[in-house]
């Protein structure tokens, strides 16, 4: 039954290889639960069916399950297409039932032998202990000792080795200098000849950020107004030893290029690799006619899931260091002469950016707002706002206190219900209902999520259903696949949607609806060029 349920749709389309592995894991989970329940039943010496009735029951159950599995395999392609159509992806001709089944069996056999190997170790330990302890006590002790030893070996040896190997690999990747990425020569960019932040020490993602983006000439050509050269500053991990030292370097650079004289200043917390999504910042620079300064600080070489797993404290430490350095200088400036101060982060960047500010920062001398996109499910502030949403609003696009200080947006903008006037601070969450990184929850193991209920998001398959255990495995698999879908879905945020979010967050005026539509088209066209968008470095 778990095998069949795993073939049903979730948030992201799956290739037959991924589907096969998922089906094998789901099958193993169902099998493991069955074995555990049977063992517990016998361990408690509960009554059992007679051999004759048990045989008939087993045959009937096997026949029913086989029919369900065959029907599910036949339906698998249709289910996957129900996901693909809402994500504007081309349909597939088949769900590859034979390939999926073979991969699932191989996955199950691998997991089965691994589990039996661990059980064998547990039995050996239990047999040794049985000389000194009662039989049932020795069994429980054997299981506990095996679990502790396995966890210790995996975490202390394998995970540590894997972390070091991955860290070195990502560090070498980060150090690569692309031949088609020219060093900027204008003073408004980190890595330029006059900057204290050396070009080679910015890292791959830092160089992509400062070397991309619209120039003053491009902005002026579009707006038909004189434009300033946007300021983009970035400090890589090699710039200094500690986050506070790197933040100090960035503050010095901000002062050097007169960033505090600009109309807007954005503190960016990158993703795990240090990547800054160009879609997020380009539109803002057009909106302010180039009168914007953006600053970002790298905290890891690893991608976001690995960084969150292995270095959870690094992102927060870095985000806090940069915010404190910039905010401390900014709040000393005359209120009427300092720039509007905003925060931004995508994915793990949104997670750490939210954590970098406190209630007192907002209450005492408040910043102007933030745009956070694809906030991952562990985000405490996001979770609190979502759980305490206004009655009648959806989990996938909530309304909080009628939108006075916080508003959620998706492809279609904010939902109805944001009837309050904006307050002094404007926080905007941009999220897609199909983003598994945002909507994964461990509680899917045993209960249906609210976002699965009607009404659903426009980019969620109408055929999606909740199944215990299996739905959690499906959305778990969806997370690393969330950036493989077209822009504007999953975890790939589109420039026109970022533009909508910045229009909400800044409240900027002087742009007609026609001008905004034209800018969206320009940004979408720009996103399809080779200008940094090609790297989705979450």
Topology diagram in text:
Blueprint: H1 2-6, H2 16-43, H3 51-86, H4 97-129, H5 135-175, H6 203-211, H7 216-223, E1 231-235, H8 243-256, E2 264-269, H9 278-287, E3 292-297, H10 304-310, H11 312-330, E4 340-346, H12 348-356, H13 359-364, E5 369-373, H14 380-387, E6 406-409, E7 426-430, H15 436-439, H16 470-481, H17 495-506, H18 513-527
What does this structure look like?
This protein is of the alpha/beta class and about 550 residues long. It is built from 18 helices and seven strands. A seven-stranded parallel beta sheet has the order 1-3-2-4-5-7-6, with helices on both faces. Strand 2, helix 9 and strand 3 form a beta-alpha-beta unit. Helix 2 packs parallel to helix 4 and helix 8 runs parallel beside helix 11. The longest helix has about 40 residues. About 0% of the residues have low confidence.
Q: What's the short story on this structure?
A:
The chain is an alpha/beta fold and 538 residues long.
Characteristic terms for this protein:
single chain; 538 residues; alpha/beta; 18 helices; elongated
Radius of gyration: 27 Å
- The residue ranges in which pLDDT falls below 50 over 5 or more consecutive positions are 531-535
Form type: elongated
Q: Could you give the order of the helices and strands?
A: HHHHHHHEHEHEHHEHHEHEEHHHH
Q: Strands of the largest sheet, in order across it?
A: 1-3-2-4-5-7-6
Distance between the termini: 34 Å
Class from helix and strand fractions: alpha/beta
The number of distinct β-strands equals 7
Helix content: 40-55%
DSSP helical segment count: 18
Strand content: 5-15%
| Main sheet characteristics | 7 strands, parallel
Mean pLDDT: 89
């Amino acid at each position: 039954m778990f095998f069949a349920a795993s073939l049903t749709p979730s948030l992201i389309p799956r290739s037959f290889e991924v589907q096969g592995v998922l089906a094998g894991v789901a099958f193993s989970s169902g099998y493991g639960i069955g074995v555990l329940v049977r063992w517990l039943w016998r361990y408690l010496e509960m009554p059992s069916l007679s051999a004759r009735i048990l045989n008939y029951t087993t045959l009937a159950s096997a026949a029913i399950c086989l029919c369900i599995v065959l029907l599910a395999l036949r339906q698998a392609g249709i289910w996957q297409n129900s996901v693909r159509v809402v994500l504007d992806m081309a349909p597939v001709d088949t769900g590859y039932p034979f390939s999926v089944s073979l991969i699932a069996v191989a996955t199950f056999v691998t997991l089965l032998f691994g589990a039996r190997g661990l059980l064998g170790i547990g039995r050996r330990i239990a047999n040794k202990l049985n000389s000194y302890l009662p039989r049932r006590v020795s069994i429980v002790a054997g299981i506990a000792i095996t679990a502790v030893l396995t966890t210790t070996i995996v975490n202390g040896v394998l995970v540590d080795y894997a972390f070091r190997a991955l860290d070195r690999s990502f560090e070498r990747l980060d150090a690569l200098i692309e031949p088609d990425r020219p060093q900027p020569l204008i003073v408004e960019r980190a890595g330029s000849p006059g900057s204290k932040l050396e070009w080679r020490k910015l890292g791959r993602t830092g160089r992509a950020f400062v070397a991309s983006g619209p120039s003053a000439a491009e902005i002026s050509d579009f707006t038909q107004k004189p434009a300033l050269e946007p300021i983009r500053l970035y400090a890589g991990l090699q710039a200094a030893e500690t986050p506070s030292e790197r933040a100090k370097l960035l503050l010095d650079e901000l002062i050097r290029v007169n960033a505090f004289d600009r109309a807007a200043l954005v503190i960016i917390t990158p993703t795990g690799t240090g990547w800054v999504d160009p879609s997020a910042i380009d539109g803002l620079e057009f909106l302010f006619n180039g009168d914007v300064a953006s600053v970002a600080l790298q905290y890891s070489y690893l991608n976001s899931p690995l960084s969150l797993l292995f270095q959870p404290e690094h992102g927060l430490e870095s985000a806090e260091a940069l915010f404190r350095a910039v905010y401390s200088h900014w709040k000393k400036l005359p209120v009427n002469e300092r720039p509007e101060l905003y925060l931004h982060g995508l994915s793990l960047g949104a997670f750490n950016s939210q954590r970098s500010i406190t209630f007192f920062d907002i209450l005492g001398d408040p910043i102007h707002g933030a745009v956070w996109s694809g906030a991952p499910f562990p985000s405490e502030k996001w979770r609190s706002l979502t759980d305490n949403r206004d009655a009648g609003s959806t989990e996938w696009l909530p309304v909080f206190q009628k939108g006075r200080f916080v508003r959620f947006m998706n492809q279609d903008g904010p939902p109805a219900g944001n009837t309050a006037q904006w307050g002094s601070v404007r926080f905007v969450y941009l999220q897609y209902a199909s983003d598994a990184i945002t909507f994964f929850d461990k509680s899917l193991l045993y209960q249906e999520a609210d976002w699965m209920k009607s009404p659903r998001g426009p980019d969620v398959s109408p055929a999606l259903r909740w199944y215990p255990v299996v739905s959690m495995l499906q959305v778990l698999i969806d997370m690393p696949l969330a950036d493989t879908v077209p822009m504007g879905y999953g975890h790939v945020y589109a420039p026109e949607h970022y533009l909508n979010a910045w229009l909400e967050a800044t409240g900027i005026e002087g742009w007609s609806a026609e001008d905004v539509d034209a800018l969206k088209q320009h940004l979408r066209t720009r996103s399809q060029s080779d200008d940094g968008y090609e790297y989705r470095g979450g």
